[in-house]
Each structure stands twice: as C-alpha cells, then as structure tokens.
Design brief:
The N and C termini lie far apart (71 Å). The protein has helices at 3-11, 39-42; strands at 17-18, 32-33, 71-86, 89-108, 111-132, 138-160, 163-183, 194-218, 222-231, 234-251, 260-271, 277-283, 286-295, 299-308, 314-315, 318-319, 325-334, 351-365, 368-388, 391-408, 413-428. Helix content is 3%, strand content 65%. It has one domain: Outer membrane protein transport protein (OMPP1/FadL/TodX) (Porin). The protein is elongated and about 80 Å long. It has a 14-stranded antiparallel beta barrel. It is mainly beta. It has two helices and 21 strands.
Length: 437
C-alpha cells in the first residue's frame, strides 16, 4: 500500500489505463469510505452530529434516536458515476448498490432504539502500467481489487431534559480482494510465463460509536442544538489467504472477436486456503461536532466539522499512506408546512434538503494532497398523510443528488463523482394504546 505504487500509476500517463472501479484510490484503506447514506445525512452533505431528526434515521449521532416519535423505516438504492481525468488519460464508470436499510422505534417519549445495515467502504480499482526490462523484454504490471466492508448497527438513545445521549453497537464485516499481475507476451501457447497473485482478506469485528446533543429552546418553537459524535478506531480480525499461479494470454479459441483471454496453468504455485493466516485491520476513528438552529418541523441549518483519523489505518501490519481528513460541512432543511393536508397543499409538505462540504481528502499523489468539495440536495415527496390526535405523519419518497470533486491542480488530476440516492422513508404510529368506555 505504499504511495509509490499509485505515483507510478499516474506519473506514467503515457502508458496508463483505467478500467471498471469506483476510484483508483480505493486501493488505499479498505476502499473509499462511505459517510452515512441515510437521507438525513446524505442529502445534507453529511451533517448529523447536531441535527434534529424526529422522523428520519440518523446513525451518525445515535442520541438522535431519542427524538423519534414515529416508527420509522428507510431503504433505498445508491449509484455513483465517476469521471476521472489525469493529463491525457480519462475514464468513466458507474457502480450501484443498496444505499442503506434501517428501522427506528420510539420506546416512549424521549427514548428510542434503531437498527440497520449500511455500506462502510467500497473497493473496486483496476489500473496498469507498461515497462521495459534491461534485456529489452516488454512487461505489463496490472493491479486490481474489489470487495468492501459493511456495517450492521443497533443503537439506543435517551433524552434527559435538554441533554440527549446515545450509542450504537456496530458489527463490521466483508472481504477485500486484490490481484497483482506481471504479464509477458509469448508466441508459444504452452509457455506460461506470466504471474498472478491473488490476496483475500475476510474481515469481521465489533465496534462502537456514541454521541450526545444539547438543545436550547427559545421563542416560537425555535431552537439551537449542539451535538458531538465519535467513533473510536478499533482493531478487527482478518483471515487471509493467497493463491498464485502462472498463466499466459491467448486468442479465444471459439470466438476470436473476444481478443486475448487468460489461460491458467493447472497448478497453483501458492495456495494457502487450507492454512489461512490470522491478522488484524485497524479502522480509523472519526469525530464530528457542530451546531444546528431552526424551527421544529419547519426549517433547520447546520454547521459541522468532521475529522477522520485515516493515518492510523493499517491491515495485517501494512501501514497505509493515507493522511488524516478534515471536512467542514454546511446543511439545511426546509418544509413549508409539514402539517398541511389535501392535494392543494401538497407542495407545502415537500421536504427540501441541501448541503455542501469542503476539505482535504487524505489521498495524495507525489506528496501533493487532493482536496475535496461537494454539494448535495434532495426532495422528499410525501405520500398519503395521516393524522392521529394532534400528530400528522406519513411516508415519503426521497430523491437525492450529490456531486463531489476530488482534485489537485499541480498533478492535473480530477475525479468527479455524480451520486444518486433514491429512498423510501416509512413513518407509522405503532403501539397505540386503546381507550375503552
């Protein structure tokens, strides 16, 4: 995971090729890290430490579960299109997967629980460079990887007057795969002179994140909410094995139009599947804090700061070249009239989320760090509204959009991510106490 590998890949742009993947930088760390893809976080550029969220899930700060007033569920799909430009090389690709799944339940006023599943990181890269050995033999080096980690969480939040506390227990699991190839050309179909080494790491372990919020109310249902959340870096276990074999490239025998295909030698020169090696992965810590101000069920504006301790990441005693990441985030929400009923008032009940962020990325090329800047927005389109006593509630379809730029002008490098997050948020009133006369 040394930075020199990535530097070589970009410096030799005359022979560089990009292929399917979410980012060439997903080689470092366990892939590109996700912030929360729940709509209350994604569509507001990642805010969450200080947000008031009484009908959406906010796992960034589990103390927010104490604000849940309805049974709330959320699930959706997420897609990301990445356009990469570096000098004369460019690439374009798209990935799509489940954005998140979660369910939150109010236990009583000022107390709630939540559980769910969300992506933690995504690794998918493929790049190569060509070289010539001292004896004039051409060689091609290929580096690729795929996989990623997911996070399952269950949490609890409680409010004591103006102060809220909460915690999530997390189970992180997944697999990270990498393949390194050294490829030589040959005219003899029986000569297997190229080498492929595949490494597999199965990851699993338990973690913990917690948070608190302090709310100050003032005139006309307005408030100022201070919040902080943190997730401590932790070691998780890995089970690792390696498979290595020789191969060569040949024209496809049945369909020559497919071009060259890789034909493997029947025997593996390395195969440790029967004797895997136990190791550790150290995942980075995160702290996020800030404040929000707004009016209940009407509008909110948040300003937050997030620090990711990426420099402490390592896997199986191999230290990453990533640096710590710092981000300033601004987000907001507007609902003209959340309690309005009837078709004529439909547009008043739409939720408008928006946000933006900027900071450093933690990634660098030739010791020049890449900066990140992004914006996001979403429309929450309500479905049928219901009214129970003085409470109005209902489910919504959220369409969220985001744009992120990761770049460094000195290296003439640009990554542009276009993200779409479509979710359905279900709100319902469960456990209603029946009254009899």
């Amino acid at each position: 995971m040394r930075s020199s590998l990535l530097s070589i890949a970009f410096v030799l742009s005359s022979s560089l090729g990009f292929s399917q993947g979410n980012s060439p930088f997903s080689k470092f760390g366990p892939g590109d890290f996700y912030s929360s893809n729940f709509q209350s976080n994604f569509s507001r550029a990642g805010t969450g430490a200080s947000s008031i969220t009484n009908n959406t899930l906010n796992p960034i700060n589990p103390s927010s579960y104490s604000q849940i007033t309805f049974t709330t569920g959320e699930t959706g799909i997420f897609s990301s299109t990445n356009l990469i430009n570096h000098e004369n090389a460019s690439s374009f690709f798209t990935i799509a997967n489940l954005s998140s799944f979660g369910l939150a339940l109010p236990l009583k006023k000022g107390m709630g629980i939540a559980f769910g599943l969300m992506p933690y990181s995504k690794q998918n890269y493929d790049y190569f460079y060509r070289d010539t050995l001292e004896d004039k033999t051409p060689v091609k080096y290929v580096y690729s990887g795929n996989g990623g980690l997911s996070k399952m969480f269950i949490g609890y939040g409680i409010k004591l007057k103006t102060l809220s506390f909460g915690f999530n227990g997390n189970y992180i699991f997944g697999r990270l795969n990498s393949t390194n190839k050294v490829k030589y050309s040959t005219d003899d179909l029986l000569v297997f002179n190229s080498l492929r080494i595949r490494n597999f790491s199965n990851v699993n372990g338990f973690g913990f994140n917690t948070g608190m919020q302090y709310c100050i109310k003032y005139a006309n249902e307005k408030y100022i909410n201070l919040g902080v959340s943190w997730e401590l870096g932790k070691n998780h276990s890995t089970t690792n094995y390696t498979i290595g074999n020789y191969f060569n490239e040949q024209t496809h025998a049945l369909n020559p139009d497919l071009g060259l295909v890789e034909i493997n030698n029947t025997e593996n020169i390395i195969d440790t599947r029967e004797t895997p090696i136990e190791g550790q992965i150290t995942l980075p810590s995160q702290i996020q804090f800030g404040f929000s101000t707004g009016k209940y069920q009407n509008w909110e504006t948040s300003v937050e700061f997030r620090h990711n301790d990426f420099s402490n990441y390592q896997i199986n005693n191999e230290i990453s070249s990533m640096k710590d990441k710092n981000t300033i985030i601004v987000g907001g929400r507007i609902v003209p009239n959340a309690k309005a009923l009837g078709k004529s008032n439909y547009w008043k009940t739409i939720t408008y989320n928006f946000g933006g962020f900027f900071g450093n990325s933690g990634y660098h090329i030739n010791n020049n760090e890449l900066n990140e800047i992004g914006i996001s927005f979403a429309f929450g389109l309500p479905m049928k509204k219901f009214k129970y006593q003085t409470e109005t509630f209902g489910s919504s379809i959220f369409l969220g959009f985001g744009y992120t730029n990761r770049s460094n002008a000195k290296e003439d490098f640009n990554e542009n991510f276009l993200n779409i997050n479509a979710s359905i948020i279900l709100n319902d009133k469960w456990f209603i106490k029946r009254k009899f006369q």
